[in-house]
């Protein structure tokens, strides 16, 4: 099931909120492409874009958390590494086996659900650190 952006995901940092929206849209686009049985080339394009967006966003956010000495900076970095690992597993599964309900379920639970919880639980802690600086 797609993840819908709501105000509960707002961090109060416009650049990060925009990056989060882009990542959510890309993950939703991937689910849609799988449900439509789009070609492997289309799916690979979405996966590549999602990978680039995630790497850029995670790097930016980790730099901000370190700069503003956010107490969850290290946990955030570890959770990002977990996401990248899971995304890599899903990407390999798609390349080797193609689309399946199992892969779509993993994207829904292990990427979209994780991401929504991560934003609300970790990423929202950055703004108060910035405000103190």
UniProtKB/TrEMBL annotation:
InterPro entries per record: Hemerythrin, Hemerythrin-like, Hemerythrin-like_sf, Hemerythrin_metal-bd
Record-linked SUPFAM superfamilies: Hemerythrin-like (SSF47188)
Keyword Transmembrane: no
GO terms for MF: metal ion binding
Matches recorded under Pfam families: Hemerythrin (PF01814)
UniProt KW Hydrolase keyword: no
Domain Hemerythrin-like, residue spans: 11-128
The entry's keywords: Iron, Metal-binding
CDD domains per UniProt: Hemerythrin
Similarity comment: Belongs to the hemerythrin family.
Cross-referenced NCBIfam families: bact_hemeryth (NF033749), hemeryth_dom (TIGR02481)
Protein name (record): Hemerythrin-like domain-containing protein
């Amino acid at each position: 099931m797609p993840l819908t952006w709501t105000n509960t995901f707002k961090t109060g940092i416009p650049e990060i909120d925009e990056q989060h929206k882009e990542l959510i849209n890309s993950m939703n686009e991937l689910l849609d492409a799988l449900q439509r049985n789009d070609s492997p080339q289309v799916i690979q394009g979405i996966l590549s874009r999602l990978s680039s967006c995630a790497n850029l966003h995670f790097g930016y956010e980790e730099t901000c958390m370190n700069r503003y000495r956010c107490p969850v900076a290290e946990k955030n970095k570890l959770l990002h590494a977990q996401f990248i690992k899971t995304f890599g597993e899903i990407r390999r599964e798609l390349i080797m086996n193609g689309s399946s309900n199992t892969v779509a379920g993993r994207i829904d639970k292990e990427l979209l659900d994780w991401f929504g919880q991560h934003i609300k639980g970790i990423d929202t802690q950055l703004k108060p650190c910035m405000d103190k600086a």
